[in-house]
Amino acid sequence: MVTTGCDLFNVDHLVDLSKAATVYTRAGKAFKGNTDPVMLLQQRPDECAQLARACMEKVDARFLYMLSTGCEIPAQVPDENFLAFCRIASSANTLPT
Predict the structure, then answer these.
(1) Is residue 23 situated within a structural domain?
(2) Which of 36, 60, 68, 80 could be bridged to 32 by S-S, CB 3.0 to 4.6 A?
């Protein structure tokens, strides 16, 4: 994958994010993911925030990483759940210093 010339790689929720972080970082590539989007549909807002935290804890702030789900988010996901998930990224100091 890292030899394709792409600038950003999506890491599916079935892939180990820690391993993906190692591979893409060594290659100097940006990556995003990898929460199961169905979990945002089935969980409470606080649980959605914890899903986001779990991803953020698996990657170093210096990595070229974007918090996201591993696939499209279902339209039925409650706004409160999506906002709780997004607030973790917006409250994290994720830019390299």
Answers:
(1) yes
(2) 68
